[in-house]
Amino acid sequence: MALPFDQRDGFIWFDGQLEPWNDVKLHVLSHGLHYGSCVFEGERAYGGRIFKSTEHSERLRRSAQVLDFEIPFSVAEIDAAKRLVLEKNNLKDAYLRPVAWRGSEMMGVSAQHNKIHLAIATWEWPSYFDPAERLKGIRLDLAEYRRPDPLTAPCLAKAAGLYMICTISKHRAERKGYADAMMLDWQGRVAECTGANIFFVKDGKIHTPIADCFLAGITRQTVIDLAKKRGFEVIERRIMPDELSTFSECYITGTAAEVTAVSEIANWNFNPGGITKQLMDDYTAEVDPQGKAAAA
User: Fold this and answer.
1) Of the listed 82, 88, 136, 158, which one is catalytic?
2) Is 202 in the active site?
């Protein structure tokens, strides 16, 4: 069993300075714990370089603004803090988790004067899925919960509360032998997985849902750009579940998942093929600092 995260060694950047890992505490009456006033990012470092670091820091601040609070550090300060915590923990290939939340000064729905905290942790985290499965293709369940109507939730923020139904859906999928679950949106259209965006291939063209009730992931946009560089047409559109039988390939993208092939979604089957493999290779080259340096 992996060592629990509250029992690890190292350093966490907390409210402007490095602290020993075990000394960073969250009070049980913190507003972010009770009312979901918390935003975060998931990032990866490859060879000591944090991939798309500034884009993630910018999104973190935007997410906080959507939840009606301001993170008291600039994008540049957040970027520098991430580099510092990575260096201090002597990590090169790692996962980083910046997280910001309202503190414990007031307890209630309204907490306009609570202190805003920011912490950044990092740890070693290999590929989200088994490397052999990533090309062979993972199996996805069809989630019961749906992504909410944008008028009912701050869906364009990477907010902690939005992941409640994701955790439930992923747990249910895993208990049934699946790796993850695909979620529909509030109108029954294909949306995303519990922590990754989804793509389909048909007749050499790539199709992906319009990201208006879920995050248009940074990895998602990276892979779209890589696909276009290869000359593939990428079509962002509404996709209904009954269309899934017409697609030949399927893959998901995300900081944790990177690019992972899908072989099955409930009763729909796919054959991981050339386009998926090409984009997996292209993404690996894109995030590899040595590969980019060599290419330059």
Assistant:
1) 158
2) no
